[in-house]
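PROTOCOL LOG
Step 1. Enter all chains and additional molecules of the complex.
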Amino acid sequence: MCQEVAHAVQLALSRRGLLKAGIGVGAAAAAVLLGGPAVVQAAPAPADTAADFDTRLTLLGTAGGPAWFPGSTRRGIASALQVGEHTYLIDCGDGAAGQLAAALLRGNGQAHPFRLLEPLRAIFFTHLHSDHVVDYNNVLLQGWTAGLGRIRPVQVLGPGPRGELPPVFQVPGRPRAAPAAVFPESPTPGTVQMTDGIFRAFATDLNDRIRDYLWPDLRTLVQVQDIRLPDIAAFRSPNQTPTPDMEPFEVWADERVRVSATLVAHAPVFPSFAFRFDTADGAVVFSGDTGPCRNLVRLARDADVLVHEVIDVAWVEQLFPAPRDEAADALMHHLLSAHTSIEDAGRVAEQAGARTLVLSHVIPHNLGDQRLREAARHYSGRLIPGHDLAAIGIGRRRAA
Ligand SMILES: [Zn+2]
Ligand SMILES: [Zn+2]
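Step 2. Run joint prediction.
Step 3. Record the structure below.
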């Protein structure tokens, strides 16, 4: 299975390979592959079609990466899983706090503004790239005004420290020395240290509101932990084996969900997780950022919903025409090796046996649904091109 996926990656890396392999390409799709991506205005936020489900997934933001694109209505990557009275937030990309508030208001238009975030039970970070965490401070600080952690502390779980700096991208024949590290005394902090850094940066605001409004200390309203990795036989080091073959492992559970994780292929980022939420209504898996990998297929086995990242390889190739300078080479290498093509997202979902595939973390942000639907060439389940604030019911509807 892994070899099949690896082969698929090779095909995705080569436009010529795609065509040579005879992967079904219709006339319109071929035009897209050869001439560039279909650029269309993104659809407006869809109506809530999942209001009468106990368990519901809401795509808060569906944009991958930190850039801005004309014509896009996507905010940064973030998803909310609501299970009964609890809400779980997965990643905090640009705009996540406001989108979370919008999703919670949609389910409860009469909510008191100071209590809106009371349902938020836990936050999970797949990895610490800025497009997944940049609105975390907003969730904390503005959430403080909106009931965050007031019933019980919000649990925050994410990657621990990387432990060593990643390698410097090298072009063959042109060796490049390592640049100076940023904060060399602690150059690869994990989730706990990142959170502490946010509190320190905003100490003026914290002290003001604690003294002037008599609010509880924000630091007591969250409990943050770095996810501990299990012993993994195939693991050597973050630079040698960033994605060792492994079994999923449980990271957290409460009365509504059991959350398990695995390491995915987003090197040089380490650790980089995918998460699976098992609920009474079904299982929902979030791929995080990854190239196709066996660990993810294993985690997503028979899932009800797989939310998978996706990148348009043709767009990448058009963006970086040869000859390329070294910086363009480096970014192109990352985009193609650490992310999943539209076609491969379909293959991964098919191999996992996931019943619904939701495409999110879309790169470029202004990619149209027509192009995203090409994942269905390799996938026989239900395919949903993701859009911001789309809601998907999971399991059975609530009794009327
Ligand atoms: Zn990302
Ligand atoms: Zn990333």
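Step 4. Note key features.
The chain is about 30% helix and 20% strand.
The CA atoms of residues 51 and 107 lie 7 Å apart.
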